[in-house]
Structures are given as C-alpha cells and as structure tokens.
Recover the amino acids of this structure.
C-alpha cells in the first residue's frame, strides 16, 4: 500500500506541475496578436503554397476559401500536385476558373532520395514563389475565414516575426472525432507549450503545418527547406529551424477558429493512422524514449484512475478484508481523485475550443491509453518498414 500511495502522490505532483508550471499549455488564450491597420511600407506580396496528394475530395470545400481572400496586397496561390492519382490538379483548375486570385498548378516531380514527400512538395512550391516577401505554407484540407490572410500578415509585420502559425481547428463531429481529436491538440500543446514557443529566447520551437506564414528572406538565410528535407514532422522541424538559426527572429504559434481543417477522422483507425505515422519520429526512433514515454503516460493517465477506484473500493468495505487501514485507503483515493480532477480541468479549454461537450473531460485517461498504444504502433510500423505511410507512400528515415 505505501508503494501505491507513493505512485498516486507522484501522479498528483506531476499534474500540479503541469497545471501551474508547464507554460500554461492547457490554456487556449494564445490568439493572433493584432497589427497595424495599414502597414507603413504597404502590403507585401504573399504566395500560398499547397502541397496536395490525392486531395480531390477536400479541395472543393477549402481551395475557394483561400482564392476568395480579400487581401489588400498581391496574393497568389501555388498548388503542387504531388503525383496524385485522383485528378487533384484538374479539380483545382476548375475551382480556380472564375476566382479573382490567381492559381498556379505545378505537377510534382519524383521525390529525390533523402526528402520526405510533403517537404519535397513544399520545396517545389517554394521555388515558384519568386520575389514574394511572405510565403503561406498551408494544407489542402484547410479552409480560411474571410480576412484571415490579412490578419496573419498584420501580425507578422507588427513585431517583425519570421514565422506566424495557427493551429487549425480540427474537425470533431463524429463520435470517434469527439473522443480523440481534441486530445491531439491537447497533447501537442503539452509537448510544445504555445506560450514558451512565443517567448523570445525560449528554446521551445514548433509550428502547426496547416497554416504557417513565413518570411521568404528568413527561409533563404537558413538554406530554404533543404535542412529539414527528410522531416516527417515538417512543421515542428521548420519552427525549430527558424527560431534557433543564428540571428533568428521571433516565431509565434497560437489557436484559432478562423482556420479549420475539413479532414474527416470518422473512425478510431483514422486517428490511429495519423498519430502512428509520426509519433516514433518525435521520439527520435529511440526504444529508450519509447519506454519512458509509455511509463510516463501510465503515471499520468492510468495511476490516478487506478488509485481513485482502488482507494474508494477499500473505503467502501474492502479495506478491512485486505487489512488496509482506512487512513491509507483515504490517502490513496484522495491523491487519485485530485490528480484525475486536475487532468479533467486542464482538458476543458481544448474541449470548448473544439466545440465538444465538457462531459468528455473525465475520459482523458482512456484517450491517453489509446494514444500510448498509437505510439507503440508507430514504433512497430517503423521497424516493419512502414514508417510515415501516407496515401500509398512510405517515408522511412535515412
């Protein structure tokens, strides 16, 4: 029993730290900083780059929202048709036929050795940017509210930021999505607390790949995308590259409801595949880090529930049969319930942002177990030669 109590107290201490000392990761108050209504030097040219592989089904819901942006300066869009087999390029061309903003469709070239598929597509789009001052890397499944590009540019110019990124609001409508998708954002923010990303001088760096506005000059200064050619987690890699470069500028990452993904994750398997595609990459393909992660997730998400239920059961009458003093059972239950309650409270802001019922907050331990299993699955796929699998393409590290 003393060991069980110690484990429960350790879990509670960990959650107290996460609540108060981990950069406020659970809060969703990092919103796009405002900028001047009219930049003193005028509105810079922006080129949006969209890597698209077999995205014909989502483009009708997303591409028109970008082509309809009323940006005061020059805005054009480059879509890289990454060897699609579903007519992605033709669908994009038809959607742009009557658009006010110009769309250039580039047929993607075969991927060279050492390049991840998406980063190679981004690099091809970047090569077509020309003299534009700002590049908006976005995804084919991302839809934009009116005025979003203008707001992004204002914010980037306000404090001379080299990267402004917004975490797209992920779809959370189907039951599997409501259970799993808000937790994806929650765990991402736990790994990369947005406040620390945005703090000048902090080494924490990240970005959200669906919406990344980057200064072209800052990219050129670090060798464009070649330094992250093989990155599966391209957004985090790009954020780290720009923030940690010698003389690198400020980067900003925040939440929004003006940028949204229409990608569907109707089945648990859909989210499973998304996480398993890159989770082991985040652990640098290290079995030691994998074991540590699984152990840490168990302490955070399994121990509180197990302690709470065991302590309450003992207090309800089982303690006498097991020879457990009531005081020890009470300590076990109290520590477990307190940790579980803090866990649920920290999950509420992301649930509200995702427009999901707060009643799901106590279910976070179950979700944590599922994400742990996804991470283990990611390692298994890597060792089976199926790491980074995406739409028929496998990107194994070199």
């Amino acid at each position: 029993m003393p060991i069980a109590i110690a484990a429960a107290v350790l879990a509670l201490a960990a959650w107290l730290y996460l609540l108060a000392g981990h950069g406020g990761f659970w809060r969703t108050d990092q919103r796009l900083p405002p900028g001047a209504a009219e930049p003193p030097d005028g509105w810079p040219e922006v080129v949006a780059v969209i890597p698209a592989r077999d995205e014909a089904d989502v483009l009708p819901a997303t591409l028109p929202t970008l082509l309809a942006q009323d940006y005061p300066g020059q805005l054009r869009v480059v879509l890289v048709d990454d060897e699609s087999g579903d007519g992605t390029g033709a669908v994009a061309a038809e959607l742009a036929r009557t658009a006010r903003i110009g769309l250039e469709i580039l047929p993607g070239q075969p991927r060279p050795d050492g390049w991840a598929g998406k980063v190679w597509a981004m690099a091809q789009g970047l090569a077509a940017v020309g003299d534009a001052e700002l590049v908006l890397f976005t995804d084919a499944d991302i839809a934009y509210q009116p005025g979003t590009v203008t707001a992004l540019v204002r914010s980037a110019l306000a404090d001379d930021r080299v990267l402004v990124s917004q975490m797209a609001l992920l779809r959370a409508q189907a039951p599997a999505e409501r259970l799993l998708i808000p937790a994806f954002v929650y765990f991402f923010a736990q790994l990369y607390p947005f406040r620390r990303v945005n703090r000048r001088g902090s080494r924490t760096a990240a970005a959200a790949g669906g919406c990344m506005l980057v200064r072209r000059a800052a990219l050129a200064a670090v060798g464009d995308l070649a330094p992250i050619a093989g990155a599966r987690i391209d957004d985090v890699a790009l954020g780290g590259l720009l923030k940690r470069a010698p003389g690198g500028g400020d980067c900003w990452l925040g939440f929004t409801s003006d940028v949204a993904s229409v990608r569907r994750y109707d089945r648990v398997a859909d989210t499973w595949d998304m996480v398993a595609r890159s989770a082991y990459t985040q652990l640098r393909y290290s079995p030691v880090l994998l074991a540590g992660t699984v152990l840490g997730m168990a302490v955070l998400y399994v121990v509180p529930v197990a302690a709470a239920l065991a302590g309450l059961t003992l207090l309800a009458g089982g303690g006498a049969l097991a020879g457990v003093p009531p005081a020890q059972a009470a300590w076990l239950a109290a520590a477990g319930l307190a940790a579980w309650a803090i866990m649920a409270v920290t999950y509420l802001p992301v649930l509200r942002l995702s427009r999901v019922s707060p009643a799901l907050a106590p279910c976070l331990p179950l979700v944590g177990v599922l994400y742990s299993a996804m991470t283990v699955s990611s390692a298994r796929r890597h060792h089976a030669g199926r790491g980074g699998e995406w739409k028929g393409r496998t990107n194994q590290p070199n």
In short: Residues 2-22+284-383 form one domain. The chain has 14 helices and eight strands. The chain has two domains: 2-22+284-383, 46-158+201-249.
